[in-house]
Amino acid sequence: MLSEIGYTAVKSTTAAIVLFILARIMGKKQISQLTFFDYVVGISIGSIAAALSVDPRISFAQGITGMVIWAAFPLILYYASSKSILARRLLDGNSAILIQNGKIIEKNLTRAKLTVNDLLEELRIKDVFNIADVEFALLETNGKVSVLKKTAKQTVTNADLKIQAEQQGLCANLIIDGRIMKKNLALLGKDETWLLKELKKQKVDTVRDVLLASCGANGVLHVDLKNQDPPVFSALQ
């Protein structure tokens, strides 16, 4: 029993030391701006280290060799990416535009396996509660969403001008993926007749054509239609 405990302790300590050294060699990106491949590498190395600690069938040589090989992959790929733009595009991909000038780029949203609700949640995390305020929203290669507000929304603040502003309130989503959010509509004191009339004003014939319709505190309905992606700004290489 004691010999088994001692052997496990030695293997665990060795695995932890090797893991620490490899993490330092791979750099801070492994714990900050993770790409999908970085994530897989981190899990694989951690799994090998854990198995080395407790599995008597795995020798020191096997465990450490496996960890070193997995750690070598991101270093090799980093070297290739730093020397070649083509390799960088193949390995890391490009940032994808999810919103352009207040309009959702539906095809990019689909490719990213994101729903409209996922996108709205990411915007709220960035303190954006009205999609109409967004100039660009980008899905970066590390999976994070970057948001650029429209110029009118990012200039001097009311505090800078010492102006007392009215509360903007939350933006209510009234249609998502062609479905009317009846509870949200009721909270605004509106009904479907009002909603359909507002859609008609924007030349929208049916709710099924709407990807997202939201109404701000100012009562203005912002409508984003399905399959109506604008020409995408494609200079993100």
Key descriptive features of the protein:
237 residues; alpha+beta; CRO Repressor; 2 domains
What is the terminal-to-terminal distance? 59 Å
- Strand sequence of the main sheet, in spatial order? 2-1-3-4
Strand percent estimate: 15-25%
Classify the secondary structure makeup into a structural class: alpha+beta
**Can you give the helix content as a percent range?**
40-55%
CATH class of the largest domain: Alpha Beta
Determine the number of helices (DSSP H or I, runs of at least 4 residues): 9
CATH superfamily label of the largest domain: bsu07140 like domains
State the CATH architecture of the largest domain.
Answer: 2-Layer Sandwich
**E-strand count:** 8
Low-pLDDT residue spans = none
Biggest sheet layout: 4 strands, antiparallel
Briefly note the CATH topology name of the largest domain: CRO Repressor
Task: Give helix and strand order, one letter per element, not per position.
Answer: HHHHEEHHEEHEEHHEE
Instruction: Give the overall pLDDT as a whole number.
Output: 81
Number of domains: 2
The rounded Rg comes to 25 Å
Subcellular location: Cell membrane
Keywords: Cell membrane, Membrane, Transmembrane, Transmembrane helix
InterPro entries: DUF421, UPF0702_alpha/beta_dom_sf, YetF_N
Membrane topology: Multi-pass membrane protein
